[in-house]
Amino acid sequence: MPTKRRPHRVRAAKPDKPVNSPQPPLRSKLADEARRQIDWYFAGNRGVAANVVDDAATQVSRLMTGHAEEFSAERLLTWLERMGSDITIAIRRAPARGQRGKIRVRIE
What we know:
This protein is mostly helical.
């Protein structure tokens, strides 16, 4: 007895992710600072840094090899806080009504 064949379903192609999508300035600067601190304080030792930030060493490695797009700004802020950084976020009004605000990140 012949078996019935299922009709072949065609799946829609997934849109390609932009290769060089620009990072938001806040997340990019936070990632740069986290990398700098890991290099400076832990001499690049990702296992020790992972214990301090309470995350997996593979995640620290992902950040150190330039995959900042995988990390939220909140997660990076938490890492910096656990590494001993003082973090201040200030929100001010735009100079004129209707103007867009600016994002500035200052690392001291």
